[in-house]
Amino acid sequence: MRDNDDLEQPEEEETEGESFAELFERSARQQSAWLEPGQKITARVLKVGTEWIFIDTGQKGEGVVDAKELQDLDGHVTVAPGDSIAAYFLSSSHGEMRFTTRIGGGASGNAHLEEAFQSGVPVEGVVEKEIKGGYEIKLAGSARAFCPFSQIALRRIDDPAALIGTRLPFRITAYGEKGRNIVVSRRVLLEEEQRRLREEVQAGISEGMTVGGTVTSLKEYGAFVDIGGLEGLLPISEIGWSRIKEVGEVLSVGQQIKVVVKSIDREKERISLSLKDTLADPWDLAVQTYPEGSFHTGVVSRLAPFGAFITLADGIDGLIHISKLGGGKRINHPREALKEGETVEVKVESVDRTERRISLSLAGAARAAEEEEATLADFRRQADAAPKGMGTLGDLLRAKTQKKGK
Fold first, then answer.
1. 88 is in which domain, residue-wise?
2. What confidence tens digit (pLDDT) does each residue in 175-201 have?
3. Which of 115, 127, 159, 403 is deepest in the core (most CB within 10 A)?
4. What share of the chain is helix, strand, coil (3-state, %, to 5)?
5. Residue 35 φ/ψ, nearest 5 degrees
6. Nearest to 199, CA basis, from 266, 122, 119, 295
7. What percent of the chain clears pLDDT 70, i.e. is strictly above it?
8. What residues does 299 pair with on adjacent strands?
9. CATH number for the domain that contains residue 160
10. pTM of this structure
């Protein structure tokens, strides 16, 4: 006959057993607490079994994937231990973390559609045909779904028929009537991927960095450039060193370019870019190329009330002040002497590399002034060398003029 202690022992063992189960379950929940249903991870295959494939989730505990999801048409498993696969977390129960690859046409797919809807796991589908307002999508097994035109891509597709027959990933946004009424969206997946790429790009870029990009659209004020999932604005003033009137003269949609990150506003998710900063600064050699006193040919690029801007080369403009445009006469506006687009010969009066300024004058007037100054200098030398009594400088000038007139 057992004493009281013996009678209480089984109850104590049961209590300890229940406590252990609770601890085990709580530990399992903690292991998967960092994962949300539908969350995507990259996992390493540990073991391939008949029904399950065991994966390393990167945390304490292992995960399992139904082996049917990774079989080919002949029923052979397509992965081996050591391979990396992308998997989506489904749930955790009794210490077991369940994962799935993208649900597609495998044997297990049809049974998992409702679970995929609940957890947000993507599903694969084939675009069967166009119907009113969207597409009919064939999912796993015999399931059919509807995808509105607005949910098939991020932007409107010019040729909707081009997607017929393609296999694409979708997310189930509505699941009703035991699978007879399913609505899917591809756009939500694209937006999530876009956000992920944007966050990665934002974390990896900094002001002053040079990055590659693709021109996505052209505007009057500049161009938008995709720099790896994140769009930045390339203002028209940052496209080149020369003055650009139309963005399309230099850039085209789809063009690959290198740009410098000028500024980042992470709160507003705005990035300003520069193509100009990747190009050689023409002013670096301006002093050597356009020394004072040299003559050059340029084009009248702009007329302002105070003078005319002359383009000597890409990114190099000089100014002829209005006081040097009238040929000695006073004019009210440079248009009285020049017109935009006109080619003129100019003389460099001065160069300021720091301020990026070149002062110019019209070559004709400059040469005439030089000739006059040379003539006066010549007469002065003659006057200094002539014997006294030959008259004044004015007499010499008059004599010279009369000699020319004969």
1. 36-101
2. 887 778 899 999 998 888 878 777 777
3. 127
4. 30, 35, 30
5. -105, 140
6. 266
7. 77
8. 311, 343
9. 2.40.50.140
10. 0.48
